Each structure stands twice: as structure tokens, then as C-alpha cells.
Amino acid sequence: MTKNIFIATAEPYSGKSIVALGLVNMLLGKTRKVGYFKPIINYDPKEKKDVHIQTIVDYFSLPVNYDETYALTRQEAMRQLEGESQGQMMDTIISKFKKLEENYDFTVIEGSDFVGEGAAFEFEANVSIAKNLGAPAIIVVSGEGKTTAQIVNSVFTMLRNFEAREVQVLAIVANKVKQDQAADVKELLTLQLPKNAILAVIPEDKGLLNPTMKEIYENLGGNLLFGEEYLSNQVDNFVTGAMNVPNFLRHIKDNVLIVTPGDRGDIIIGSLQANISTNYPKVAGIVLSAGSIPEEPIIRLIEGSQTVVPIISVNTGTFQTIAEIASIKSRITTDNTKKIQLAIDTFDKYVDVQALDQKIVTFTPEGITPHMFQYQLGKWAKSEIKHIVLPEGDDERVLKAAARLISQEIVNLTILGDASSIAAAVKRLGLDLDLNKVRIINPAQSEFYDDYVETLYELRKNKNVTMEMARDLMTDVSYFGTMMVYKGHADGMVSGAVHTTQHTIRPALQFVKTKPGISVVSSVFFMCLPDRVSVFGDCAVNPNPTAEQLAEIAISSAESSIRFGIEPRIAMLSYSSGTSGEGADVDKVRKATEIVKQKRPDLKVEGPIQYDAAVDPVVGKQKMPNSEVAGQASVLIFPDLNTGNNTYKAVQRETGALAIGPMLQGLNKPVNDLSRGCTVDDIFNTVIITAIQSQNN
After folding, report:
1. Beta strand pairing status for 283-289 and 412-416?
2. What spatial distance separates the first Cα and last Cα of the chain, rounded to whole Å?
3. Which residue, among 309, 318, 303, has the nearest Cα to 282 in the 3D structure?
């Protein structure tokens, strides 16, 4: 079951607050702890609080603090989007949302409002947020001022955009549709939407659309002269009081707002009398234009009246005042319980609540986005802090990564090298690295040196390693770091920024050795593509694996995939798909696939299969229509190192994907190798996955 749902629109004033109120009300009937989150709010809370958030939280008495309900202000979000810092924006949103989500059984997420500058960025940002939060969507389209064709086109444009990003849409709401269009809109959409789609067409309702006197007062910014207790009056019509009284009275309609200059005492008194007369409709309020107020006798008459509607004085002229009133968009506010209840009743009336509830119960998010993956990695690592050794303390990138790791309290670290040199480098680089929080060891001067030498000698003497050779080897940082892991003085090791792959992993192969039942050490990269994370193996260790080794690599990669929250759908890659190809290379992949099926019948595996058929849903369906893997593979196993290494680098460079790894799999304890061209981010991420690996040991 999903734990969240995203309410999205592509235009301002769509009426998504009706959906939000109805949805929260529905959920509170099923679970006690419902959270509310709006990733991007319009104003700095110090200046003005978000109306939607306040209404939802206050009306339902949700146990959530205002500061927890949002991640960024609109200004902050636009600044990051325009500065091409969408990744930073998304990380902030995910981090804030996950902290909130942990405390609730279900969280309703409301998309942004599309008011002000930057609306061009906004729709794509909302789709991306829904994708990254793993939330299915309810899309809301406004019918206000649109033809039937325009409403239908708006629905399908939104639907296509969400589906293109693999965000599942649970329901479509066409809101504020004119009464005489509603039947046609419903019929046309029902004919074209999938049969299982939940569709709600909500006709426009004056009770929801029209503003209250309080909203008019706040928007016009005038002076309230009388009638504060009636500010909740709803305004359904307005008229200009610029004619004689008998003529004016003919224009009064129910819940009318009268706009007239303040010196028109006859219109003012006539309006107040009409309001208390059973022969005339109710008057909502009066706005006095042009900065004038009634003369003293009129004021005295009003003060002595028992029932007085709100009377507001403004400085603007009559026509400008009317234009400003006409442009006011009503918002459902905390104090307007009548409108809140109407919104909930409207939702219940037009939305198939039972069908929506069933979809929520059965929805399971598919896949994981790169931002979610990285957030989850940090969370996993922090859940059980592990001790990682970094042998290459003389490399600036290692020290920079160490500073980030320590400041975020993700791991405990030992850095190998000369303490004074490392301290000098930290100072020179201006790093915020508290050296009291890391352990720095010079191998040759370590208290463990003699013990490590003795242990290495005992482990390798039957391989012709002498005591003198053991002493020499133990001054090597790779051997010393690996021995720390072997002896339990560290939980894992990350090296290779300076040293070769062989230099890094040779000691591990010599005495850490492989897990029982594993004959081959292999590697995977977590390829963080724009909208998903895939596992690539083996791209770093085995030049030309046999069919048996390839099968073992596939099984190890699937287990790594599961450990890191990615559902494994294994594609055994080749230059041919299915039974079409022949040759030794294809036969090897075919045989490896059969071995995987025999050893692990619980795993979804397909092979041989070409890369495009493995990852492209359209090609996959064409070439292998009955496959559970084709078009949606998450674990891609390459037939040899040449293919794997070149492919991961090509994908990384051409798509801008983040490649985390390589992560070695099959060893008794985690030792991971870096590329000598690695970045600080690469080291940072590899240390985190090493810490997570060590949690299983």
C-alpha cells in the first residue's frame, strides 16, 4: 500500500484544495495519523502563512507543526531551478518529506500553486517531485473559462506528461466545469480514458468559487467601518450604486455587494433597508469608493441600526474598485467552516471514494529515483554507524570526502598516513574536518603493526611468504587497511584513488577471501539515471567470465540489488535477443541464463537479450512480448569486462548519470575499489555503500 498521494495541477486556482480537503477527510476515516506536506509554498512564513496548509492542519487538527509541512519557498525554489540546482532542490524536498512521513500512516502532498513568476518551470518540477517521492498522483484540471475541447485537451496533456515520467495517475478531476458542459466533458473523457481510470467532473459551484466579505476586505486593503461580525458573508454578485434609489433596488440580487461612493447616503441607507426587508434579497456588504465616507447624520443612522452589513471604505475609484473585486480568487480558509464542509461534501459527491480507496490500498511504487536512492543510502548508513578505513590519506579528494562524511555523521573513519602531513593538508585545503573525530594511523608506527605482521605471516606462509616479506607488505597501506578489516578493527575499506584495482583487491583475495558458495569476486555499479537506478555488473573485475561465473555474477548482483532497495529484473545482455542469434558468445549468455533459472527460480531473468530490448518498454514489447524483464530490466549483466566497462562509461558520459561504485561483491567483508579518476562524490558514495554492506556482516 502506498503511504502518500500527490495532488497536482498545471494552472493557478484549479480548486485542488477541494481535493485536498476531501482526501484528508476520507483518510481520517481509515487511519488516525495523516500528515500534510506542500513541497513549495508561495511566501516566506515570516511574512505570510500558506492558506491551504493552515486550513487543512487547523480544520482537521492534524498533529503536525507548520515548519514540517513545507520544504522551500517559491522564491528559493525558483532561484535553485534557474541556477540549475534542481538536484539540490530535490534533495531538500526528499529529506524534509521523509522526516515528516516517518511519523504518519499516510501523507497527502499538495503540488505548487502556479501563481507568480516561474510557472514555466513549475509543471516539470511538480512531476519530478511526485516521481522522486514515489507518490501516485491525482491530477486536477480547471474548466473555468474553457471550452469542452480545451478541458479535454488539458486533461490528456497532463496525463501524458505524468505517464511519460512513469508517475501513476490514480484519478483525474475536472473542476469548475460549467453546468451545461459537465455531461459532455464526462462523456468525452470516459470514452477516451482507460476503463479503470477514476474520473470526477465537478460542476462550478458559487458557494465554492465566490469570495467572502473578509477576502474582499483583505484584498482591497481598505478601512472597515461597520459589520465586522458579518465578514463571513459570501458575495455572489456585485452592483454599482450610481443611479437613483428605485432604479438601484431593481438590480439587487441575492448576496450582492454594492459599490458606491461614500457620499451616496441614499444608496447606503437603501441597501441596509433592503437587507432587513423580507421583500428583497440579502445584501452581502457595501464598499465605499473614492476615499469618501458618509456624512455624520448617515453615520449616526447606521450606528443605531440593529443589523449592519460590512461597510468598507477604499481610496480607489468606483470602476477600479469593481475591477479589483472581479479579479479576487476565493480561497478556502480556516475560519470559513461552511465552505470547508461544502468542499468535503462536493468531493464525496463527485469522486468515487470507494474506487479511489481501493487504488490507494493496491498501489505499489515501482522503481526508485536517483535522489531517493541517495537519500536512502544515507539513511541506511546512519541506522548503524560503521567504521571504514581509507588507506590513501595523502590524496586531497579522500580528505575532502572524509570531511563531508564526518560532518554528516554517516560513518566513523580511520585514515592511513602521516598525521602531521594530513593535518597540514586539511589546513591548506580549508576543510572543516575535525581531526579529533577521525583516527589517523601511520602503518609502520602503529601499535597493531607487529600483530598484523604475525597474522599475515601465519595466513600466507604456505604461499612462501616469509616474516621479512610480511613486515614489508604490512607497511603497504592496502595490506594494512585490509588487515584492519580482517581483524575487525574496521568494518570495511575503500581504496583505489591512487592505487590500481589489483593493488587494492589483491590483499582481500589473499586473506579476506570469498563468502561460502561464492567462487568469483565481481562488481556492480549503481547507475543513477535521470528517472531510475539500474545495477550494472560486472564492469570492473572479470575480463571474460565463463557461463558459470556469469550466472554467479548475475545472482550476486541481484542480491546486491535487493539489499539496496531495487527490485531485481535481470537482463543477461548479448548482441542477440531470444533464440534469434547463434555463436559462442550468445551460447555462453544463454547457458548462464539457464544456470540462474536453475539455481534461483525465484529471480526474474531474461537472456540473451539486447540492451535496447532490456531497457526500452516499446522495443522490449516488440522483441519479447511475453517477458517479465524486457523493457523494464533493473539489473543488467554484461557478457565481458570490455562490454561492461565501456557501456557504463558511455551511459555515464552521454546521459550525465551518476555512477556509484564499483562495489565489490562476494567477499567475506567489504573492500571496495575506486577509479583513479574518481571524484570526491565518488569516494563519498562508495564509503556509504561500503558501510551499508558491512551491516550485513
Report:
1. unpaired
2. 31
3. 309
Phi, psi of 173 (to 5 degrees): -120, 115
**CB distance 391 to 492 below 8 Å:** no
* Per-residue pLDDT, 170: 92
Q: How many CA atoms lie within 13 A of 76 on its CB side?
A: 16
Amino acid at 361: V
pLDDT at residue 86 in the model: 64
pTM: 0.64
**Which pLDDT belongs to residue 461?**
86
Predicted confidence at residue 154, as pLDDT, reads 92
Q: Give the integer Cα–Cα distance in Å for 229 and 95.
A: 43
> Any residues with CB less than 8 A from the CB of 32 and at least 6 apart, and which?
105
For all residues of the chain together, what is the average pLDDT?
A: 88
Burial track 173-211 (b if 16+ CB lie within 10 A, e otherwise): bbbbbbeebbeebbeebeeebeeebbbbbbbbbebbebb
In terms of phi and psi (left: phi > 0; alpha: psi -120 to 50; beta: otherwise), the region of 209 is: alpha
Contact 414, 390 (CB under 8 A): yes
Which runs of E-coded beta strand occur in 165-241? Answer: 169-177, 198-203, 223-226, 237-240
The per-residue b/e assignment along 121-152, b for 16 or more CB within 10 angstroms, e otherwise, is: bbbebbbbbbbbbbbbbbbbbbbbebebeebb
Of 229-233, 355-359, 389-393, which has the strongest mean pLDDT? 389-393
Q: Are 331 and 212 in contact (CB under 8 A)?
A: no
d(CA 515, CA 528): 28
Region of residue 671 (phi > 0: left; psi between -120 and 50: alpha; otherwise: beta): beta
Q: How many helices (H) and strands (E) does the chain have?
A: 28, 23
More confident site: 561 or 579: 561
Residue 690, C-beta contacts closer than 8 angstroms, at least 6 positions apart: 386, 388, 492, 493, 494, 663, 670, 671, 672
Percent of the chain with pLDDT over 70: 96
Question: At 158, is the secondary structure helix, strand, or coil?
Answer: helix
Q: Which residues pair with 604 in a beta bridge?
A: 569
Q: Which residue ranges form the domains of the chain, and what is each CATH number?
A: 4-207+337-365 (3.40.50.300), 213-327 (3.40.1390.20), 367-513+667-696 (3.40.50.10950), 516-666 (3.40.50.10750)
- The pLDDT assigned to 505 comes to 86
Beta bridge partners of 113: none
CA 44 to chain centre: 21
Contact 599, 553 (CB under 8 A): no
The conformation of residue 461, written as its DSSP 8-state character, comes to G
Q: Tell me: the pLDDT tens digits for 415-459?
A: 999 999 999 998 888 787 888 899 999 998 999 999 999 999 998
Q: What is the 3-state secondary structure (H, E, C) of 226-249?
A: ECHHHCCCECCEEEECCCCHHHHH
Condensed to tens digits (0 to 9), the pLDDT of residues 251-304 reads 888 889 999 998 898 999 999 999 888 899 889 999 999 888 898 899 998 888
d(CA 252, CA 237): 9
Q: Give mean pLDDT, residues 375-395.
A: 89
Max Cα–Cα distance, the chain, nearest Å: 117
